[in-house]
Amino acid sequence: MTARVGVVTFPGSLDDGDAARAVRVAGAQPVALWHDDADLKGVDAVILPGGFSYGDYLRCGAIARFAPVMAELIPAAESGSLPVLGICNGFQILCESHLLPGALTRNRSLHFINRQQRVRIESAGTAWTGGYSSGQEILVVLKSGEGNYVAAPETLDDLERTGRVVARYEGGAPNGSQREIAGISNEHGNVVGLMPHPEHAVDELTGPSADGLGFFTSVLAHATASAPVPAGPG
Amino acid sequence: MPDAPHLDTVATAETTPDTPLPYAELGMADDEYTRVREILGRRPTSAELAIYSVMWSEHCSYKSSKVHLRQFGEKAPQSDALLVGIGENAGVVDVGDGYAVTFKIESHNHPSYVEPHQGAATGVGGIVRDILTMGARPVAVLDALRFGPADAPDTRRVLPGVVSGISFYGNCLGLPNIGGELGFDAGYAANPLVNALCVGVMRHEDVKLAQAPGPGNKVVLFGATTGPDGIGGASVLASASFDDESHAKRPSVQVGDPFLEKLLIECSLELFREGLVVGIQDLGAAGVSCSTTELAAGGTGGMRIDLDRVPLRDSRLTPEEILMSESQERMMAIVEPDRLDAFMATCARWNILATEIGEVTDITAEEEKRGGRLVMSWHGETIVDLPPRTASDEGPVYHRPYSRPADQDALRENDPLRLRRPETDDELRDQVLRVLSAPGVCDPRWVTEQYDHYVRGNTVLATPDDGGMVRISEDTGRGVALATDGNGRYTRLDPYTGTQAGYAEAFRNVAATGARPLAVTNCLNFGSPEDPGVMWQFAESTRGLADACEVLGTPVTGGNVSFYNQTGETAIHPTPVIGVLGVIDDVTTRLRSSFSPDLDGAKIYLLGE
Amino acid sequence: MARVVVDVMLKPEILDPQGQAILGACDRLGFEGISDVRQGKRFEMEVDGEVDDARLEELRQLAATVLANPVIEDFELRVE
Amino acid sequence: MARVVVDVMLKPEILDPQGQAILGACDRLGFEGISDVRQGKRFEMEVDGEVDDARLEELRQLAATVLANPVIEDFELRVE
Ligand SMILES: Nc1ncnc2c1ncn2[C@@H]1O[C@H](COP(=O)(O)OP(=O)(O)O)[C@@H](O)[C@H]1O
What is the pTM of this model? Predict the structure, then answer.
C-alpha cells in the first residue's frame, strides 16, 4: 500500500490542489482534509498548503492555527511521529502554532514577490528532504508577500547548530530573511516549514523545473520505511 | 429609521404627481424622465427613479454605443464555437472535448483613479464574478494598464496602488495572472486605464444564465452584506427627497474582500454542482437594481422583493441606497423552494451569508405586454411597481452625432518621416537604448513580479511570453491561450486601422503560442460620447474591429464600453483593448517567445512584409 | 525629542474585512461578548526638537498625505 | 458597552520595513526632523457589558493569543 498524504484545505487555501497533484506525481495518495473537521483520517503525513487562510487579515496563519484540524495535528507533530510540511502560508501557520520557532514578516521590499528561485538544501536529514543530498541546489518558485524569516539571534544560532536550517536562498534572500533562511525543521525533523513552493516545480511544463518533487518522494520513502504510526490517543 | 411619513410609496406617487424628483442630479435627461413617467403612467417613486437612473445610465444601458456594437453581431463570422453570444454576462465558446470557456474584459478606470488600490482590486473582483456567474470556474486573469508619464507625480501615486490592488485581489483569489499590458502616455494622466480580463472553464452542460423562471421560486441574495459603498449618487436622492442629513455624505469608493470572494467562488461552484440554482446573477455596478430587473426580465417577468430582508452593514441605509449600493462580493440566485434548505446548508458550510428576499411571480398577459411586473416593498408599503424589461432591456438608444475631428488631417500629416534620422552610429545606438529603456517597452518585471503566475499549477505560458496559456484538462492536455493588445496612439491617428492593428497584434500573440484563435472580447476606452469627434473615433473603431473579425473569422463574444475618459475637456487617446482567445489541443506543443538554448545553430526567419 | 502617535482607522462606513475576520475568529475561539472589532494602524514617530503648533500642523499634513489615505481613512494625532 | 483598544507594535529589535519606507517617503517629501517611524496595528473592540478585572484578563489573553504574536510583537491594552 502506498503512503497516504493529507492536504488540509482552510478557507482561503489556494495551493491545496497543487500540493495534492504533487503527492500524486510522487506516487503517493493525496487525502483531502478539511479545516473544520478534527480528523486526520489516519494519514501518514500532512501538508499545510499555500494560500491566504482566513484572508491572512490579522497576521498570516494566525487564525488558521486555531482550526479544529490543528487540534489533532499539533500533538501528533510535536511528538515527532507525524511528518508535516508547511509551504508558504503553511510555514506561517506552523510558526504561529509554535511548532516551529520564529516568525515570517513582510518582505523587505514591501511587495509580493513571484519568481523562480534557486534554493540550496542544507539538511537531508528530515522526513521531507531525505531524497536530496545536502548542499544540492534546486530551482523552485517563490511567491509570497510575507516571507521574511525572523527569529532571535539565539534561536538562529540554535537552528544552525542543530542542523535545522533545511534550505537557504541562493544569491541572497529576496525577501530579507535572516541568514537567507528559506526553510527550517523542528528538532525531530518531522515538521518542516518552507517559504518557496516545491509543489509548483514538479513538472517542466507548468513550473521552472521538476526539482521540487524530491520533497514528496522523500516523505513517501520515509513513510514506507517507518513502521505504521498509530494515529495518536483516542 | 427613516420616518414613515417621508417614505415615497407608489400610493404617494399616484397622489402627488407634481412632487419634483432630482432626476437630473442622477444623470437622467429630461426626455428620459418623461419616458419613465409614460411607462409608469405616473411619476416614479424615488426608489423607482433609483432603479431607472442606474439601469439607463451609460454604463448599464450602453445607450450611446449600442447602435455601433450591433455590428459585432451582424458582421460576426459563422462560428460553430459560439455557445452563448453577446448579451449575457460573458460569451461562451466551445473549445472541444465537451469543455466550454467564457472570458471577458472590463474596465475600472475611474474608481482606480480615485482610490487606486481598492479601485483596481474591485475591478478584478467584478470581472471574476461575471465569469463565475456563467457557471464557470475562473482559471486566470490578465490586466491591461495605461498610465500617465512614468515620472509624473500622480503616476507615482496611481501605478503602485493599481498594481498592488490587482496583485492583492488576484493573488488572494488564487488566480494566476498570465499576461497583460503596461503603457504610458501623457494622455492618461489623471485618467489611467485599468482593464481586467478573466477566463473561466466549464463543461457545456454547466452554462448558467441570468434568468428567473418558475413562479414560486425563491430569490436569494448571498455573499456580503449591503453597505453604503459607491452610492455617492444615491445620497442625492436620499437627501433631496428626505432631507435627512445623516445621508449627506456617502463614499463613492468600494472596498473589496478577496477572501470572501474566494469563498463565494467555491460556494457557488458547489451550488452549481449540486444543481441547486436555476438562475444566477452577480451584483455589479447597479447592485440590487440590476440583478432583480435582469433576472426578472430573463424569466417570467414577475418578481416580488422584500427590501427589508436585505442584510445591511449599516442599518441607516434607505431603500434607494440599498437599490443603488455597489457593495462587492454579492450574488443573487433563483432557487426552487424544495431546494432552499440544501442551498442554505451549502452556504453555511462555506460561511456565506444567504437570505431569501423574495420570489418569482406569475404575471397576467396584460402585465406581460407592459414588460413584466417587479414589485418591491419596504416596511410593508409598496415602493416599487414597474415592468422590469423597461428598465433592463428597453433603455434609451441614442444615435449620437459624430464627425471627423478637424485636426485629424493635420495629425495624419505630421508623419514620422519628418523626424530627423540618426546619422552616426552613436546616435543610432542612443536611440535604440532610449527605445529599449522607455517605461512602456522595458522589462515590466517590477509589475509582473507582484502577480502569482503559478497558482493552480496549470500555467503553461505567462509573462514574459507573448500570450498567456493555461491547461484546462490534465487528462487531454487541452489548453487555452489569451493575449490583450491595443494602441491608443495608432487609434488616435486612424481609429479604424489602429483598432485592427491592436486586434491583429493580440491575434498574432495568441497564434505565436501555437494556439488557434477562436474568439474576441474588447474593452473600448474612449472620451465623452457627447463629443462628436470622440463618437467618430468610436464609430470608426467598432467598424474596424467588426470588419477585421469578419476577415479573420473570430466572433466578438462580449466586452465593455468605458466612456467619459478625459481630463477636463481633453479626451484620452481612443483606446480599444482587444482580447483574443485561442485553443490548443495539447499544451505540450506550445511555443515560447524566447529562443531555446538547445536550438543552437538553428536558422532565424523573418515572416511578413 | 518627542514621540508623536498617529492612529489611523478606516472610516466607519467603509467595509473592514480584517475586523470582520477577527470577529469571526473570536467567535470560533469562544471569546464571547465582543460585538465589533475594527483594525487600523498605529504609527509612532520620533520627532526632533519641540513640537509647537506650527510643527504639529506640519505633522498633521504629513499624516494626511503619507500615513493615512483620506479617501477611506480617518486619523488622530497626539504627542505622547 | 465598552471600547477596548489594543495597540500592537513590533518589538524594538525587529526590523520594520514599513516604518523605514515611510521614513524614506518623509525625507523625499521634505518633512524634516523625523528620526524614526514605526508602524503597528491598532484594534478597537466593542465589548458588551462591564469590563471588570476578570474580563480584562480574558481580553488580555485574547490579545496575547490572537491579536499579537509574542514572538515578534508587544501589545498594550486599555479600556477607553
Ligand atoms: N500589466 C501586466 N500584467 C501582466 N503581464 C503583463 C503586464 N504588462 C506586460 N505584461 C507581460 O509582459 C510581457 C511583455 O509585455 P509587452 O512589452 O507588452 O510585450 P509585447 O510588446 O511583446 O506585447 C508579456 O508577457 C505581457 O503579457
Answer: 0.93
Per DSSP bridges, beta strands A113-121 and A103-105 are unpaired
The Cα B168–Cα A107 span in angstroms is 14
CB count in 10 Å sphere of residue B194? 30
**Chain B residues closer than 8 Å to A17 by CB:** 456-457
Q: How far is A63 from chain C (nearest CA, A)?
A: 6
CB B325 within 8 A of CB B228: yes
More confident residue, B474 or B246: B474
Burial of B122 (0-12, 13-18, 19+ CB in 10 A): buried
Q: How many domains does chain C have?
A: 1
Q: Ligand 1: does its nearest atom lie under 6 Å from the Cβ of B377? A: no
Q: How far away, in angstroms, is B327 Cα from ligand 1 center?
A: 31
In chain A, residues with a C-beta closer than 8 Å to the C-beta of C39 are: 57-58
Domain CATH number, residue D22: 3.30.1280.10
How many angstroms separate the alpha carbon of residue B468 from the centre of ligand 1? 10
- Note the pLDDT tens digit of each residue in D33-56: 899 999 999 999 999 988 899 999
B145 lines ligand 1 (CB under 6 A): yes
Percent of chain B residues past pLDDT 70, beyond the cut: 96
Q: Which of B40, B5, B9 is nearest to B320 (CA)?
A: B9
Q: Report d(CA A206, CA A224) in Å as an integer.
A: 29
**What confidence score (pLDDT) does residue B373 get?**
97
B148-191 pLDDT per residue, tens: 999 998 999 999 999 999 999 999 999 999 999 999 999 999 89
Contact with chain D for residue A106, Cβ under 8 A: yes
DSSP three-state, residue B90: coil
* Residue D23 · residue D37 · CB < 8 Å: yes
- pLDDT tens figures, B93-140: 999 999 999 999 999 999 999 999 999 999 999 999 999 999 999 999
Cα A38 to the center of its chain, rounded Å:
20
Strand B566-567 with B575-584, pairing: unpaired
ipTM of the complex: 0.91
The answer on pLDDT for B4 being more than 90 is no
Evaluate the CA torsion angle B428, B432, B435, B438 in order and state its sign. Answer: negative
pLDDT tens profile B410-455: 998 888 888 888 999 999 999 999 999 999 999 999 999 999 999 9
Cell of B298: 430573463
* CA dihedral sign of residues B553, B554, B560, B564: negative
Chain A residue with the nearest C-alpha to that of C16: A57
Which CATH number, 3.50.50.60, 1.20.1440.230, 3.40.50.880, 3.90.226.10, labels domain A4-226? 3.40.50.880
Whether residue B279 has its Cβ less than 6 Å from ligand 1: no
List of chains touching C (3+ CB pairs within 8 A): A, B, D
Domain limits for position D42 = 2-79
